[in-house]
């Protein structure tokens, strides 16, 4: 049987140049067995014609909320109920902003409010527009509400800029759609309505630590905290009681999560050891500095010498110390590697006595530190699962569900 056999997919097209790829997207989804209906915004029709999409989808294209004939044929509520899955591709900064504001002033935004189906958004915009705080805020809001993000990808853009904001390729969008749809065929919860983590306490470390050299200087790293906060947000949406122990970050704490702010690895260690006995699940996502300064100078160090030496001592290994507790929570570590990922990740899993380790290759472009996207391979002692490149919020959701499944198995054994 074809993977999308019998699935009703509503493709929302907004007004970006990547709209030229949508006839191919419709065809590829139909090749996999899906029934596809297309909804276009006014802007989309400036890039591609409804006639083209009607021809490839073999269904009437809807583009108006207030068209009496269209409402008679299939009204907006009927269309919203018809869909098993809504994919908005390309999604402009404008459509993201409208949905995040709860507007319903055209057919596509109305459908987003009126549907119970999961919605995936494939952003497509200039890299500066993607990085703009307004767009990032809308991205965070929509992720928190349970919208899934497919991309954006990185690379050369129609305007000549290079960076994050490209719509993913048609093949990637089709693969992600198949994966997403198979997750609800496998009875994975609809995160908007189900709370399988209710009653669980999750403790998550996130962000960098800072190791003071003197009152004005420190040693740190590039961690943004995005992955840890995305995991916190996903676990909270699925019903968990979530505490984040975070180093200094500039991102917003996900709603309904408790945040304990720390600066140094020693502070993070102290907080984690205090809070872990209460937790069911501990996820060590922080990029903890391996070493700290032995003697922090009490006054600003003067540059009076041509060379200077700092004496460093090893920081406690927080995740290993939690995993060594007699009443340890289910403990998940991360491994950011630049080479030989499986070998090093499995080594850490064993050495630190972890229940699970999520490994990413930080040398790959467009993922890892400071990026909005990531890809993980998750190892336990007896298996491994690949979570392919996706936005950190989408990836976090998949990781949280995988942790939950392994945690439940561990309770049974
Ligand atoms: O040994 P490495 O630093 O590569 O291990 C990474 C994992 O260990 C991450 O989960 C990180 O949060 C955790 N870690 C820790 N305390 C340290 C160093 C790493 O909890 N001092």
Keywords:
413 residues, alpha/beta, Rossmann fold, eight-stranded mixed sheet, five-stranded parallel sheet, 14 helices, binds cytidine-5'-monophosphate
- Count of spatially separate domains: 2
CATH topology of the largest domain: Rossmann fold
CATH architecture call of the largest domain: 3-Layer(aba) Sandwich
Q: Write down the Rg.
A: 23 Å
Helix content: 25-40%
Number of helices: 14
Mean pLDDT: 91
Strand content: 15-25%
CATH class descriptor of the largest domain = Alpha Beta
Low-confidence region ranges: none
Molecular shape: elongated
SSE class:
alpha/beta
Assigned CATH superfamily of the largest domain: CoaB-like
Main-sheet strand order equals: 12-11-8-13-16-17-18-19
> What is the end-to-end distance?
35 Å
Bound compounds? cytidine-5'-monophosphate
Number of β-strand runs:
19
Major sheet size, sense and barrel closure: 8 strands, mixed
Describe the structure.
- By secondary structure, this protein is of the alpha/beta class.
- It has 2 domains: 8-185, Rossmann fold; 201-295 and 305-412, CoaB-like (Rossmann fold).
- It contains 14 helices and 19 strands.
- An 8-stranded mixed beta sheet has the order 12-11-8-13-16-17-18-19, sandwiched between helices. A 5-stranded parallel beta sheet has the order 2-1-3-4-5, with helices on both faces.
- A hairpin with a 2-residue loop joins β9 (211-214) and β10 (217-219).
- α1 (22-31) packs parallel to α2 and α5 (93-100) crosses α8.
- The radius of gyration is 23 Å and the shape is elongated.
- The two termini are 35 Å apart.
- The mean pLDDT is 91.
- Bound molecules: cytidine-5'-monophosphate.
- Cytidine-5'-monophosphate binds at residues 205, 265, 284, 286, 288, 315, 317-319, 333-335, 348.
- The site of cytidine-5'-monophosphate has 13 residues, from α12 and β16.
